[in-house]
Specification:
CATH topology: Jelly Rolls
CATH architecture: Sandwich
Distance between the termini: 6 Å
Strand content: over 45%
Low-confidence stretches: none
Mean pLDDT: 88
């Protein structure tokens, strides 16, 4: 069953969100709003560490967009955890299991 996490950040602060610890899959991201040079990087981390492997390298989201990740297993797998780091003004929903 898929779960979701609503994440919000206001510039100039950089935000970070430990969404899940342990194995899972990320299915997609819905960006409801993005401004002030937003950036999103997603890591395979259980300790909120940017030294862990990146699942999705830094990308610039735009308003009202959906990014779906399919792959052979219906998503992109992570083994340690799901950690999301953002900058700028952003409101997004992460769909995962």
């Amino acid at each position: 069953m898929s779960l979701y996490a609503q994440l919000n950040n206001i510039a100039p602060d950089a935000g970070s969100f430990q969404v899940k610890i342990g194995f899972g899959k990320i299915h997609g991201i819905f960006i409801s709003s993005a401004a002030n040079v937003p950036r999103v990087t997603i890591y395979d981390s259980a300790t909120a560490s940017t030294a862990d492997p990146e699942i999705i390298h830094q990308f610039t989201p735009t308003n009202a967009t959906v990014r779906l990740f399919s792959g052979d297993i219906g998503g992109i797998a992570f083994s340690k955890g799901l950690y999301v780091a953002v900058t700028g003004d952003i409101s997004m929903t992460v769909i995962y299991e």
